[in-house]
Structure formats: structure tokens, C-alpha cells
Amino acid sequence: MLIDLRSDTVTRPSAAMREAMARAEVGDDVYGDDPTVNALQAEAVRLSGKEAALFLPSGTQANLVALLSHCQRGDEYLVGQQAHNYKYEAGGAAVLGSIQPQPIEADADGTLPLAKLAAAIKPDDIHFARTRLLSLENTLGGRVLPQAYLQQAWRFTREHGLALHIDGARIFNAAVALDVPLKEIVQYCDTFTICLSKGLGAPVGSLLCGSEAFIQRALRWRKMTGGGLRQAGILAAAGLYALEHNVARLRDDHDNAKWLEQQLQSLGVEIAEPGAQTNVLYLRQPAELAARLGPWMRERGVLISSGPLTRILTHLDVNRQDLQKVVSLWRTFLQQHA
Ligand SMILES: *Cc1c(COP(=O)(O)O)cnc(C)c1O
């Protein structure tokens, strides 16, 4: 068995999750007839306190559909320079929605300073795009946005007539790290996404949550972008299973990331952002060493995206014993390459 630390997207559905998928009652979700999709969406509503939820194939599509539903052609969204829905989604909002991103440099804690946001809001003038939306990401690079910041950002958007979207691919990691229910985080946004296919362990799927009217608009964009699935209950069953069984255990991933950080630190590995809050670690390595580490580890059954800045993620398919093996291999590697 490979030990795969490249991402938490590599998690595979467990036997019990597959069983839930096999047993799922299904219908045609484009007609709104799939009972398992409806149950998953209802569960997202219950957990979030939002009015409605929509199941989509991927987090990228969920963000795209959210941006398309918030903004019109010629509108603009304020977003972090390192945000997934600015940098890692192939420019979808601009390409497909004619929506202009206004990237903002984040502070060290991952927050977008309100003064910078205020300065970036365009006046109502024919020269400018219309600033419509603030998009935040929680967690961002494994960091949890402070609740006090979210509250301020929420108030800020109310004062400036903006909507607030949270890319919450790993929002349950934030909730578990803060030890608060999801509701307490998402009370400070109009809309947010959840990825079921990362640390939660489902093979496919994301959720977009918001008001009833917003989700009605999103439904049309989901259809247009090819995200209307038919007997999707088989996939939604995995999501329901994940929400029931795989949320509280995210704490193990966080503990494992902390443990790994300490172990690597004691081997002399430089931690780029010490103090792992969730399941993400960043390491800095000399470029030449980093280039050798990846293939060396791969030969020994460990997958790491090794580079000058290396991102490592813990997840439900990697336990403490696996990590002990990784640390022991790493020690050997450093001894051999000293
Ligand atoms: C993974 C991720 C997404 C996109 O999810 P996919 O399902 O891979 O398309 C969006 N935002 C963030 C922050 C992510 O980590």
C-alpha cells in the first residue's frame, strides 16, 4: 500500500461507504427526484442553517456556479491572490462568466485586510467593473480564518453592499479545529461550498449552500455547465456517509499533521508555516534535496509532491503508523544525503 501525502483528495471510499453507495435509493436528480441527493442537500441545510443546498460534481464547479449566480457579466469579485477560485480554477469565472477577479494579497494569517478590500472596491463609474462580491477561503493553506475576522468581514460586506462567499472546500476542518458547529462559521456568509471528496473521504462531490433564491439561480448554472447528474444518489450516499462518519475524525488528521510537523522539525526540516492548525503542512527544502526526495520516497512507497516548498496533507487513509514509517525513511534519506 502506498502512503500518499500529496493531497487529501486521494482518499478512497471505505468498504462501509461503498456499501452505502450500493444500497442508495436513486431517481433522476435533474427532475429533483433523487431521494438520496435530496437527503444529502437536506442534511447540508440542517448542518449549515442556510435555506437551501445543491449537490455538484466538483468543488471547482461549485465555486464557478456560485460566482455565476452572484455576479453578472462585467461584475467583479474581491478574492485572495492565493485563493483556489482565483488561481487554481483555470480562470473559469473570467472565461465563462465575464466576471473580473480583483485579487488581494492576504496577511500572514490568511485574512484579507479590510482596508485593502475597501480600497479595491470600485466607485459607481462607467470606467469600472461593478464590485459585487467578496470571496474568502476557509481553511486557506490549512489555516483557519479567525471567527472574529469573519464577523468583521461579514459586517464590512453589509456596509458596502457586497455579497460574501466562502470557498469552504475544507470548512469542516475549520469547524473541527475551532471546535464549533458549522453553523457558527457560516452565519457570516451568504453562500459557501463544502468538498465531500477531500478529507471527508467521498469519491466525488461538493455542496453549495445559500438562500432559496440563490440556489434556484445556481440550479440553472449547474445545468448549463454540465453538472446536472441523473441517478446521482449513488454519489450522494457517499456524501451522506461522509457527513455522518468522517467529520469528527478530522481531528485525527490534525493531530497527525501536528505530530509529523514536530518529528520533521526534530530532523532539522524547515517548516514554512509552523503551528499546523489542520491537516496541511508546508516545508521548505533546498531545491536539489527536494528534487531527490520525491523519487527516493516513491521507490519506497511514499508519495510526496516534493519541491522547494513542499505541501503535505494528512487524511483518513494515512494513520500514525504510516507516518512513523515516513519519518524513519526521511531520517535515512537525510543521513544518506548529508
Ligand atoms: C480542492 C479545492 C477546490 C476544488 O475542488 P475540486 O473538487 O478538486 O474541483 C476548491 N477550493 C479549494 C480551497 C480546494 O482546496
TrEMBL record:
SUPFAM superfamilies: PLP-dependent transferases (SSF53383). The gene is ltaE. Transmembrane segments: none annotated. This is Low specificity L-threonine aldolase. It comes from Serratia ficaria. Its EC number is 4.1.2.48. CDD domains: TA_like (cd06502). One of its GO terms (cellular component) is cytosol. The modification N6-(pyridoxal phosphate)lysine is found at K198.
